[in-house]
Amino acid sequence: MSKSTNLNSNLGRQARLRLSPYQVVRTDWLAKAAVLPGRTLHYAMAVFMLATIANSSTVSPGPKTLEKYGVSTDSSSDALARLIAAGLVRADRKRGRAPRITLLEGPDKLLALRKEIAGVS
User: Fold this and answer.
1) What pLDDT digit, counting tens, does each position of 48-93 carry?
2) Which one, 32, 36, 83, 119, has the greatest CB density within 10 A?
């Protein structure tokens, strides 16, 4: 398997096999993360890309995935705390495991990974 496939080891086999360098990006959601300090945008991009690959609003980014996006294990907890405070994600944390992160669009509203564009089919 290729190196990029191994970095996403927390995804299912089918999701790993359909990795593509071209993904649909919700810039409105990422723009909210971009104004936060530190490596928060890097962390948000890693989580968002995992979510689009897995086609799920809930993911668990592992240390190898975060390393690929330039986020150390020390800065990941700070970045996650900032995203939670901004209302962009909800996290379920368990000791010794990667947090299970759910992407949010508003208060307790799941993020639609692909927004429909009016008039485009």
Assistant:
1) 888 888 888 899 999 999 999 999 988 999 999 999 999 999 999 9
2) 83
- The tokens of 112 are what? 């639609």
**Residue entry with tokens 């996006």:** 69
**pTM, entire model:** 0.74
Encoded tokens for 71: 């986020």
* Collapsed DSSP state (helix, strand, coil) of residue 50: helix
CA distance linking residue 32 with residue 62, whole number of Å: 23
Residue whose C-alpha is closest to residue 5's, from 21, 25, 19, 23: 19
Is there a contact between 60 and 10 (Cβ–Cβ < 8 Å)? yes
- Judged on CB neighbours under 10 Å (0-12, 13-18, 19+), 121 is exposed
